[in-house]
Amino acid sequence: MKIEVWQGDITTLAVDAIVNAANETLLGGGGVDGAIHRAAGPELRDACERLALVRPGVRCPTGEVLATEAFALPARHVFHTVGPVWHDGHRDEPALLANCYWKSLQLAEKLEVRSIAFPAISCGVYGYPLYQAAQIAATETIAWQRGHREPRRIILVAYNSATFKAYQQALLAAGQPVEEACPAERSAQDMRIATALE
Ligand code: APR
């Protein structure tokens, strides 16, 4: 079992599930949410719109996750999770972000997903400090793998080199051996990620 860090566009990954860093409406937005909706096609928004509101304007509360099909994406499922907006770290942000990873992995196990890719949830518009978020991603995925067989492939997707490095450092700090990153001059597409082998 291994945790991988890969640099590139999550919408191109032919994995069983890609995780979307959505907002509570689940009706799309910018960043990775916008990229996933564009790549999936309009049926994704239709599917999200059919999901029940749990309260006015909210289909998926922060820290929770809901699955839809992936439509035109190469993945099979999209797991829509909503990360916390960063304020000051004293409004449950760490626990809510940890829930995004843990509940997505629980859903993956339930749906017999064998490979799952996560973007850097909350690290864009929602302003979560990158290294603190990377530490949570590393801690949650490593803890999951220690106790579960599936999903056997967990990929942390970095969209830029700063995120790639933060994941590398966080995995190393969490005791996961990490291969040297590929030289920066190689294209992001070729950037076969540091693979942390258990
Ligand atoms: N593939 C992988 N990662 C991506 C991609 C992509 N195609 N596009 C952006 N990212 C990265 C960003 O660089 C960032 O590291 O995803 C991470 C999360 O950033 P955001 O997409 O801004 O998500 P978040 O910070 O969780 O904010 C969510 O933004 O787009 C809206 O509707 C969304 O309101 C919600 C909010």
UniProtKB/TrEMBL annotation:
UniProt cross-references to SUPFAM superfamilies, sorted A to Z: Macro domain-like (SSF52949)
Residue intervals passing through the bilayer: none
PROSITE patterns tied to this protein: MACRO
Entry-linked SMART domains: A1pp
Pfam families: Macro
Molecular function GO terms recorded: O-acetyl-ADP-ribose deacetylase activity
InterPro entries: Macro_dom, Macro_dom-like
Residue ranges occupied by any Macro domain in the UniProt entry: 1-175
Gene3D superfamilies listed in its UniProt record: Leucine Aminopeptidase, subunit E, domain 1
Superkingdom of this protein's organism: Bacteria
NCBIfam families in alphabetical order: PRK00431.1-2 (NF001661), PRK00431.1-6 (NF001664)
The name this protein goes by in its record: O-acetyl-ADP-ribose deacetylase
Annotated source species: Stenotrophomonas tumulicola
